[in-house]
From TrEMBL:
Record family assignment: Belongs to the HyuE racemase family.
Coiled coil feature spans: none
Highest rank taxon of the organism: Bacteria
PANTHER family reported in the protein's UniProt record: PROTEIN DCG1
Pfam families attached to this UniProt entry: Asp_Glu_race
GO molecular function: amino-acid racemase activity
InterPro entries xrefs: Asp/Glu/hydantoin_racemase, Asp/Glu_race, Hydantoin_racemase-like, Iso_Racemase_Enz_sf
Name of the protein described by the UniProt record: Hydrogenase expression protein HupH
Amino acid sequence: MKNILVIVPFPMADDELARRQAQADKVRLGPDITLQFRAVRLGPLNYSSQHDMALADIAILDAGLDAERDGFDAVCIDTMSDSGMAMLRSMLRIPVIAPGRHAMLVAQMLGDRFSILMMWDRWKMLYQKTLAELGMEHKCASMRSIGVTPDNKSLLAGKEEQVFPLLLEAARKCVDDDGAQVLLLGSTTMHEAHGWLSERIDVPVINPGPLTYQMASVALDLDLVHSATTWPAPLVPKVEMIRAIGAAGAAWLENRS
């Protein structure tokens, strides 16, 4: 049996976590693969600035730091920002898969140029960073926002009639006006729109969360892990310090509630 940890990037209650877990229904993994979803202990309210991204890195590093020790065989990070991926790769010798870069790379298997559908413009910085790291700016036909503030806990529940048509309108502009041959959902929080949108647009639509589970499964099947040359281990690991930061942040949030 192979166990994959899925790190959810915001503190949340069990019912909210269940909406994230629903992504697992969209992919068929082998009977020897299990997914365990774990929300972080601390973090920003949303991913809307560089300040938020720094907190996100710390939160996800804290949540996944002990994954290998806890018996997990791989880690998936449930955010298109890829927050914490590089940090966890430097600390773990099990596969760490994040959806942003992997969705873009898989898009290159399916077409030449892709577009990213996003809820609001503040997410654009997330994709620009990953595109620059991969040297793929020229492969991105466009990034189109529907101008709706994302909800990281209730996701799209109750907003389907508002959000789904806006996504379809933006998707058609990406294809017809921008020349996109593949579309990426810009957030795992948008996963509930994937099936509806895919049925109404004539290009592949990548659902980034389920993609990471499949990629982790493939890495385990092929006995592959990220390069320690690219993501070297720290000379002096500060494991206890990271745990202390996580505990302090969780306590601070608890005192505010």
